[in-house]
Structures are given as C-alpha cells and as structure tokens.
C-alpha cells in the first residue's frame, strides 16, 4: 500500500511538472502579432512578396518585439487610395478621397485588432498613409481605457509625424471639403503608461517629403529637396519588395544598416544614434547619405556619360546646400506639433561661419573624391569585409540628427533570435537580407468594413476594398550604388538570400519601385 502511494505521488509530481513546463514555455514563446497597415497604393500587403517580411525584419524585430517567440504578420487590407492623384494604384479621378480611404483603414485595423489574441504582444505597424490610419486607432485606444501595456506601435514614413509630417504641417487648415482631407496635429505622444512609458517607434529618412517636410517652405531649396525626397526616398523604405530589383535597397542604406540603426536607437536613444524621445514615442531619423535633389544630376551624368564631371560638382556643392536646406527645419522636438512657419529665426554670424566651413569642406571633398556623390557611387563593400562607416549628415544645425560614434552605432547583433523566417502561404521569391526572426505571415481575410470599434469622427468609406493590380510609377533609374562614409556606422550586408513569401500576384507595392513616389 505504501509503495503504491509513493508511486502515485511520483506520477502526480511528474504530471504537474509537465503541465507547469508546458505553461511557462507557452508564455515564453508566445508569438508577437504584427498588424501591418500598408501605404497608399498597396491594398493588401500579403499579396506583395517581401512586404511583410521586410516590415518585420527592418523595423519591428530591431525594437526587440520578436525576441521571445518571433512575430506573426497579419495584413490589414483597405482602400489605400488618394483622389485625385493620377499615380498607378492611387485611384486617380476614380479613386477614394483621403478621409474615406483612411476611414476604411481604421475600420479594417479595428477588425483585425479585435480578432487578435489579447494575451499575446501586439505591434501595430503603419507605413505612410497607414501611419495616419494607425494614428486614428491609437487615439481611439487612448480614449477608451488607454493603450494596453502589451500593445506597441511602429511607424515608418509617417504622414502624421507631429513635426515634419505632410499632413500635420498645414494643421491650421483643418478639414478641406473639396479634397476631403483632414489635417491635424499628428500622432499623439501622451498614451504611455507607468508600465510602458515608451510604446511607439517612429522611423523616418531625412528629407523624405512625406514625413520630413521643411517647416519653412519659403526656403525653396529645402522645399524642392523634400519634393525630390518624396519621389526618390519615401517609397524605398521596404525595398526590395514585389517586383523591385533584388539589388534595390532603402535609399543609400543596406537592409542590415537600417536594422542596425533602429536597433542602436532602441538600445540607446541619443543624438549619436539619430534618436529623440518625446512623450511616449522614440523618433529615429536616419541621416541622408546624399541630398535627394542631387540624385537627378547623378542620373543625368549616368545617362550622358558625364559622371566624371557631375560627381565632383555634387561633392563640391552638397555641404553648402545642406547648410541652406537645414535653415528650413526646426528639429528641436519631433513629437511637438509644428505647423508651417513664415521665416526662421537665423543667427547671421553662425550662418556665415557655417557657410564658410561648408564651402571649404566642399572644395576639399571635390578635390579628394570623398564627398556625398563619391561615397554614394562607390562600389559596394565586400561582404567579407563589411564597412564600418556611417553617413555624415554634414548639417551644421545642432538640432539636426548627428553622426553616430562607432561604439553607439554598432548593432547589438549578439542577441539570440528564434529560428527562421516562415510563411503560411508558399511561393518563393527573392527578398532582402533580414534578421533571422520567426516571421509568420497570414493571408488577408478581406471582409466588409465593419469593426468592433467604429472609427472616431471618421467618414464611412465610399469605396470597396479590392486588390490592386497596378504598380507605382517608375522614374528614371538612378545609378545603382551604395555609399561608403567617412564616419562610423552599422555594418552592412546587402546580400539578398532566398526566402519564402506569400502568394505572388500582380498586386505590387504602394511605394515606388526605383525612384518613385508614395503617400
């Protein structure tokens, strides 16, 4: 009898131990759900090969969101159009107006959020117009009990960035009836909690005209540069994806450099990592390796075989142009709603000193072949000996993003990551090198626009959500080159391994392919 009782006791201990082990393992490896809200022209991100994989690999995983159990990407399909802009995929005169398109996204996002497992971590991701969609839902969550501690946000190319967003600069206009566009103060920064004071990461490329538009548009050089940034920079934040060439990368950056920059800013948010914290948001502004306004000149040189003349000219003039362009910006606080202004307050003495210094720098760069154009057009470094250089902003304004130091810019790549990238649906396509995180993408379940939580003060959508079979316009191809820099930065490996992607269709991305535009 005593022996039987002892055996029964051992069996119960083993049973309870197995249950406890299973329970704790399930908690430790709970996958993070990433709700992916695309930008204008991409109605369903799951139908664009590489889109959701790059969302997670470039921007979500480096924040640490996928460290425990990997990430599962869930598409948020919506209208994603912008009347009356006649770009492919944007709808043109037949498309939905901005507020209707955003409202359809809010309904779809609320629907996907309601279906998500609230016991697991949730990341809500928005790109471009998708950033405005996420902004509305973030407001709704804040107004209805607050943002839960297991919910975070990652925004890229955010059209509603408080200081720089194209849809926040003219906030004084409010609602414009003819266009059906509502301008406002931007993404809120007051939703943090004691348990999670910073719940949002907002990533932008410097001089992207959608998210880094100048405060003072009377500075015509800064305005023209931002317009060029809209065309050349904004649409490349997830490259390569869809039909993009496998060699295409975010403008001047390799995927590894983007990942490393976001990771470094997450680990230590300082000016050295191009990062600010304002309220509940970590703002990362990656410095431009070359001024967007100079890229047409490089393309002209390539087309006319005059690169030998154009390159030193760009090297010579870029430092001076940067100083002038930066007088059109106020980078004091990216989280503070900052509408358009008339004229900046300029210290003439400081400006004069900066212009003289930039002129000397330009002459030296042109003479030695070490300027922006020379670095941008330099051959890619060998993957066996990755470059440790980082882009220099060459911006005299102390409020602008500064160049990182080597020890602060190098990513913490020693972090242990779960196994491999996996997809639920399976055709193969070329995709960029991404961090080895467990990424599961789910197919889109396009439904009628109804949600468990109706959008706040948003009009009902006027268009049905249908997959788009169009692509963004392609501007003339720019010279394929990756710049090397004279100041330290994240190492880069632009090798693009084969990964498994979602179903390949004719639906391509919302953002331009080589030198293209997106909202």
Brief synopsis:
By secondary structure, the protein is of the alpha/beta class.
Can you tag this structure with a few keywords?
519 residues, alpha/beta, eight-stranded mixed β-sheet, two-stranded antiparallel ribbon, disordered C terminus
Number of strands: 14
pLDDT below 50 for ≥5 consecutive residues: which ranges? 20-28, 382-436, 446-519
Biggest sheet statistics: 8 strands, mixed
User: Helix and strand succession?
Assistant: HEHEHEHEEEEHHEEHHHHEHEEEE
What does this protein structure show overall?
- The structure is a single chain.
- By secondary structure, the chain is of the alpha/beta class.
- The chain is built from eleven helices and 14 strands.
- The chain has helices spanning 2-28, 51-60, 98-115, 129-143, 220-232, 255-267, 295-304, 307-326, 348-368, 372-376, 406-409, and strands at 32-37, 71-75, 122-127, 151-156, 175-176, 181-182, 200-205, 275-278, 281-286, 389-390, 427-430, 439-441, 487-488, 498-501.
- Strands 8-9-7-4-3-1-2-12 form an eight-stranded mixed β-sheet, with helices on both faces.
- β5 and β6 (181-182) form a beta hairpin.
- α3 (98-115) crosses α4, α5 (220-232) packs across α8 (307-326) and α7 (295-304) packs antiparallel against α8.
- The longest helix is centred in the N-terminal third of the chain and has 27 residues, at 2-28.
- The protein starts with a helix and ends in an 18-residue tail after the last strand.
- Residues 20-28, 382-436 and 446-519 have low confidence and may be disordered.
């Amino acid at each position: 009898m005593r022996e039987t009782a002892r055996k029964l006791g051992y069996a119960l201990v083993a049973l309870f131990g197995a249950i406890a082990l299973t329970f704790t393992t399930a908690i430790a490896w709970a996958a993070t759900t990433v709700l992916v809200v695309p930008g204008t022209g991409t109605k369903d991100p799951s139908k664009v090969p590489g889109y959701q994989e790059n969302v997670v690999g470039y921007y979500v995983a480096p924040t640490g969101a996928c460290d425990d159990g990997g990430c599962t990407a869930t598409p948020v399909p919506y209208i994603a159009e912008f009347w009356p802009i006649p770009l492919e995929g944007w709808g043109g005169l037949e498309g939905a107006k901005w507020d209707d398109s955003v409202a359809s996204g809010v309904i779809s996002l609320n629907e996907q959020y309601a279906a998500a497992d609230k016991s697991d971590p949730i990341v809500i991701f928005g790109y471009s117009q998708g950033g405005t969609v996420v902004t509305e839902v973030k407001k709704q969550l804040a107004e209805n009990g607050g943002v839960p501690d297991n919910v975070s946000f990652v925004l890229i190319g955010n059209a509603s960035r408080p200081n720089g967003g194209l849809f926040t600069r003219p906030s004084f206009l409010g609602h414009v009836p003819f266009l059906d566009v509502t301008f406002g103060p931007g993404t809120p920064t007051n939703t943090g909690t004691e348990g999670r004071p910073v719940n949002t990461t907002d990533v932008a490329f410097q001089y992207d005209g959608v998210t880094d538009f100048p405060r003072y548009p009377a500075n015509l050089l800064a305005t023209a540069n931002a317009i060029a940034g809209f065309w050349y920079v904004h649409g490349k934040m997830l490259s390569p994806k869809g039909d993009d060439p496998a060699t295409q990368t975010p403008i001047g950056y390799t995927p590894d450099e983007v990942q490393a920059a976001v990771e470094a800013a997450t680990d230590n948010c300082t000016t050295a990592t191009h990062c600010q914290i304002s309220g509940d948001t970590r703002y990362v502004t990656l410095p431009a390796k070359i001024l967007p306004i100079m890229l047409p000149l490089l393309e002209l040189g390539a087309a006319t075989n005059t690169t030998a003349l154009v390159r030193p000219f760009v090297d010579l003039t870029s430092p001076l142009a940067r100083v002038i362009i930066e007088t059109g910006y106020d980078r004091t606080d990216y989280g503070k709603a900052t509408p358009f202004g008339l004229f900046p307050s300029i210290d003439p003495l400081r400006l004069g000193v900066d212009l003289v210094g930039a002129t000397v720098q330009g002459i030296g760069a042109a003479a030695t072949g070490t300027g922006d154009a020379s670095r941008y057009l330099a051959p890619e470094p060998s993957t066996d000996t990755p470059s440790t250089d980082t882009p220099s902003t060459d911006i005299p304004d102390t409020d602008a993003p500064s160049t990182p130091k080597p020890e602060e810019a190098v990513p913490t790549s020693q972090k242990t990551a779960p196994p491999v990238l996996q997809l639920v649906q399976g055709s193969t396509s070329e995709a960029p090198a991404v961090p080895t995180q467990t990424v599961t993408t789910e197919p889109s379940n396009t439904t009628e626009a109804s949600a468990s939580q109706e959008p706040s003060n948003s009009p009902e959508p006027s268009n049905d959500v249908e997959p788009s079979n169009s692509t963004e316009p392609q501007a003339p191809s720019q010279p394929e080159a990756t710049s090397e820099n004279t100041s330290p930065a994240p190492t880069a490996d632009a090798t693009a391994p084969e990964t498994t992607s979602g179903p390949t269709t004719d639906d391509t991305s919302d953002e331009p392919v080589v030198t293209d535009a997106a909202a």
